[in-house]
Amino acid sequence: MRPLPGxxxxxxxxxxxxxxADPASAVHIDPDGRGQVLLFPYYTVNVNKVTLLTVxxxxxxTKALRVRFRESRNGASVMAFNLYxxxxxxxxxxxxxxxxxxxxxxxxPARLITNDSSCTLPQLPLGGSQDFFEFAYxxxxxxxxxxxxxxxxxxxxxxxxxxxxxxxxxxxxxTTAFPAASEIRRGARGERAGCDWLxxxxxxxxxxxxxxxxxxxxxxxxxNAIIVDVPKGSSFSLSATxxxxxxxxxxxxxxxxxxxxxxxxxxxxxxxxxTLASARSADAGxxxxxxxxxxxxxxxxxxxxxxxLKAVSAVLMQRQLDxxxxxxxxxxxxxxxxxxxxxxKPLHLARDTPIERLPFRAEYRWSxxxxxxxxxxxxxxxxxxxxxxxxxxxQRVGRVAEGAQFLPPPIPPAPSLCHASQVIAxxxxxxxxxxxxxHEVHFGDAPSPLLGxxxxxxxxxxxxxxxxxDSDPGVCDSRLExxxxxxxxxxxxxxxxxxxxxxxxxxxxxxxxxxxxLGLPVIGFxxxxxxxxxxxxxxxxxxxxxxxxxxxxxxxxxxxANFPLGGWTPDPGR
Length: 574
Description:
six-stranded antiparallel sheet
């Protein structure tokens, strides 16, 4: 998951340039953490949490951004606004909640609070709060299967997309000057009149000519989040994934494309218009994705109406994820939860055909009543998951003297990844049965203990496959040895024959480039909270966060004749 440092990536970029590829014109994860797009993998206000967000403009240019919060179940947009940053400006905000009772289904929605003077449209109340909205998933054409309560907004992820750079337009003859950048800087200094000017501009000049005073995006954004638990006196911080080369201007006017509305994203004012599907390269209808895989640098070309969405998913694709966990260590009690966020999942699922929805296969479902077996088929849009784990001494589950498969066959019912942001809670002592292992709070179960997720997947790290209870496959048989209390786990995402992204139906015979990417587009981390038994009245809580390590799986394959229902076969020519 963590990109290569710049000094290691440089040789790959040089090799790509020799082959005619230009990393600046292709979507890629920026190894230095700066870009046109920022993806924050998780926010939460559950179990007394507050999420603090920071977005930084590291450039000398004034910028227009789109900030969007998406809820965790189906990735529906619950808050979106334009943010205007002056040169070297910083915006901060806090996602919080009104006090709520123990019933999560009736809990108050998340809300955004900011004291930052940077201009937004619509304008956010300084020092006040703005509740998140449920309309995108509860009403109209975008309504999904549910649940439709506002409490669904309490956890999710955040995307920030640069719309363009802003400059002043001098008056010429009868044309009135348009000091957009100056007014943004004025607002950043705390003069609300500057932000009021922007509001009027959208009712006048920008409504008629949204590209006026706008240049093409050029990146330089960075950001981080801190999730704070005030009662426990602990917090953990995470960096946003930065994506660059997201929106590349046409060659005939690059790099600025001054005033051309088609060469920036500022003209798409409505909240649902600028998304991760808005990526594009300099060529119309085309988007390129570039990433490293071992010692090779891969470049994939996508075309058609969903080229941008596929390119963004391509740079996020992972076949495997590795990370660590702890249940107890060095006399400390610990609990670990993993977050897996699929930023492009809601966009793929909104498409009409199975081909457009790839690499995802499932459709979003939800049941308001407790279903019969199995629960994971009726809640969310579930993709398969396989796990291998072990302790710190190299012992792994499923190992036998003859040498077992590295990944043992899944023990029915297999766990699934069902939501746009999926929390996996490891070794929760409160879990005693299958229905609790695959929690759904609308069934009256408890949330995950650390992050308070309303729809976690619970998993116990049993010492052997034989330990698993026949009736509750996710839970260790307490009569046997128990858990691996600390160690590592590897997740294999999706079915390699069903969950894949393709740039062409078969590989190019003239190159060695892959045309298939296996897995799912994902970002995330593992967080562990430690609690020490010390003197009464003193806090001894601390948390650590570790980003997932990942492995990509680009392959050369030929799609089956019954595609998209079928899978693929390896390229016989290589």
